[in-house]
Amino acid sequence: MEPTHFPYHHPSSNTLDFGTMKNFSTGNTTSMNDLSSDHNPVAFHININSNLSSGSKNINVTNWKTFCELIHNSIPGNPKMDTEAEIDEAIQKFTCCITSAINLSTRTKVISGPFRQPPKEILSKIKIKNRLRKLYQITFFPPYKRKACKLQKRNPKGH
Question: Which domain of life is it from (predicted)?
Answer without folding.
Answer: Eukaryota
